Amino acid sequence: MKLLLTGSSGQVGTELKQQLAGQAGLLMPSRAELDLADEAAVQAYLKQHQPQVILNAAAYTAVDLAETEQAAALALNAQLPALLARYCAKSGAYLLHYSTDYVYPGTGSEPWQEDSPTGPLNYYGQTKLQGDLAVLAQCPAALIFRTSWVYSVHGKNFRNTILRLAKQQAELRIVADQIGAPTAASLIAAISLQALQRFQQGQPMTGGVYHLAPRGYGSWYDFAQAIVKQAMKQGEALVLLPEAIQPIPSSDYPTPAQRPLNSRLCVDKLERALGIRLPEWQELLAFKTQ
Ligand SMILES: NC(=O)C1=CN([C@@H]2O[C@H](COP(=O)(O)OP(=O)(O)OC[C@H]3O[C@@H](n4cnc5c(N)ncnc54)[C@H](OP(=O)(O)O)[C@@H]3O)[C@@H](O)[C@H]2O)C=CC1
Ligand SMILES: Cc1cn([C@H]2C[C@H](O)[C@@H](COP(=O)(O)OP(=O)(O)O[C@H]3O[C@@H](C)C(=O)[C@@H](O)[C@H]3O)O2)c(=O)[nH]c1=O
Ligand SMILES: [Mg+2]
């Protein structure tokens, strides 16, 4: 079975690549081999290789930069998934796509459901929503896993930023009024492989949106505390002590893109579909950094 993995150098892509190791027929073009922002090039690639499964882990994820680099964000987050969905609908190929908590407006404090009204607050979120809507419209059998606050030992993410800063400075100010669930890229890859297995066994999950995140929630401040405590337990030499992390409101940390305050995702639908219970985010973090 020919399987195309896009974004194989990213956080989720790297974990998928590792967990898919040994799978025959795996295509993982690098950016130099295939510019995913180039629609004609992607079309030609699909025509040439005819994949039967597409795992679309590529995206434009620089949230603040997306406010100004709009064309690049739109190409990767909206136009690419639309094109992949059209190809999959036509050819019968299986599509697994990823999306974000940033499609929701962040109001209230209850977890979002998959059918909750969307309302992105920033351009990244707007383009991701456009991508989701295109996938749902073009290819109803496709799966969209909406996740949140992705981290990994590889790549640019909040966990690695905090660990870097904790080795350099004795104080840190972190927003405490944005809540959500930090999600290890390895969990996303493991669940994606379960979904793929279902498809390969002829029992695919019903198409549509599923939230994919650990159980529980915290603020970015809670996440930073947990990252630093975990690193200390593991004997890392840090300049920063957990007590020296200051909780601040979002208004004290101005950024070009606005972030949602409430990013909680209800994961019941995914748990029911796969017959699993997702771990708590703290358990997952402890496991990841051991
Ligand atoms: N990061 C997060 O916190 C969250 C992410 N998500 C979603 O999860 C999915 C995976 O995200 P994540 O793994 O963090 O993403 P990353 O930013 O880590 O990886 C993005 C990947 O896309 C590739 N890419 C981007 N532009 C191009 C291009 N023009 N041509 C070829 N390749 C390109 C990158 O390649 P290169 O290495 O060459 O740049 C990289 O492999 C995305 O759909 C994202 O929206 C959802 C919620 C949270
Ligand atoms: C580094 C730093 C960040 N922050 C805040 C800014 C922000 O509100 C929060 C997290 O910072 P980040 O830059 O990692 O946030 P961001 O890049 O917006 O993270 C998002 O990325 C996209 C791709 C998603 O899809 C989302 O789920 C989410 O993970 O922490 C501080 O308060 N103090 C700091 O020193
Ligand atoms: Mg970021």
TrEMBL record:
Keyword Ligase included in the entry's annotation: no
Domain RmlD-like substrate binding: 1-285
Metabolic or biological pathway, per its Swiss-Prot or TrEMBL entry: Carbohydrate biosynthesis; dTDP-L-rhamnose biosynthesis
Annotated SUPFAM superfamilies: NAD(P)-binding Rossmann-fold domains (SSF51735)
Keyword list, A-Z: NADP, Oxidoreductase
Cofactor binding note of this UniProt entry: Binds 1 Mg(2+) ion per monomer.
Names of required cofactors: Mg(2+)
GO biological process, one term: O antigen biosynthetic process
GO CC aspect terms: cytosol
Keyword Plastid: no
GO MF annotation: an example: dTDP-4-dehydrorhamnose reductase activity
Catalytic activity: dTDP-beta-L-rhamnose + NADP(+) = dTDP-4-dehydro-beta-L-rhamnose + NADPH + H(+)
A Pfam family hit: RmlD_sub_bind
Family, as annotated: Belongs to the dTDP-4-dehydrorhamnose reductase family.
Job of this protein: Catalyzes the reduction of dTDP-6-deoxy-L-lyxo-4-hexulose to yield dTDP-L-rhamnose.
Name listed for the protein in its UniProt record: dTDP-4-dehydrorhamnose reductase
Organism of origin: Alkalimonas amylolytica
Lineage: Bacteria, Pseudomonadati, Pseudomonadota, Gammaproteobacteria, Alkalimonas
